Amino acid sequence: MFAATTALLGRLPARRGTRAEQTRSGPHDAREERIPLPGSTQVRVVAGLPGVSRDNPDRRALELLNYIVGVPSYGGRLGWALTKSGLTYSASATTTFGANSGQILFETTCDTRNTDATIQAIREVIGGVGTRGVEAWELREAQAFMLGRTLLYGARDDSNNRTVAGALLDSEIVALDLLDLPALSRAYLSITLDDLNRVARRYYQANLLKVVAAGALPTAAEPRIFPDGTFRALFEP
To answer: Which end of the chain offers a freer environment for a tag, N or C, measured as fewer CB atoms within 10 Å?
Structure first.
């Protein structure tokens, strides 16, 4: 299931969508793939946005947004929208940075009957971040998480040779000394709320979000449980 969804999301287009990509086809969005998998008991939902390369100046801000939206398990905005409503048990976001491009992925698993509502929630949460941005306290929490992770798992001067060599190679790629912990800390702490919301507007565009659902898909159209805007409203004043 994971290979099928990842392969489809790997064909994400450039950041600007075409008119055809933004039209609707049948009961579901044109930027949506549904793959029935016989024998499955649940539905895996993966949504993706085009990302950036390792050396892109927006990389650190996207990492912070990744935490704010999809803290692994049941945290973050997606976790709140999906688990508090009873649609799923967990959700997570990952951001990958390649030599020339990257991907922003959001993942969860749901019951067959919750497929449409789960996709609705993901679209509304992502779209809400892109149009309204995030809050200052979310930025501070994300920065604290990144600094803590760096101290616990990042390469240091006393790390083994393989870890240090990998950090030195990555440092060349991203033009930042990953062994210089104060510099790495400043890279995250220097991001302001205005910076973060500018990046959110640029990359978290709802019309570029592609969703793949694979597994025990519903055999008929599901009744809409939540009115449009329900999940977006969770994070509005």
So the answer is: C
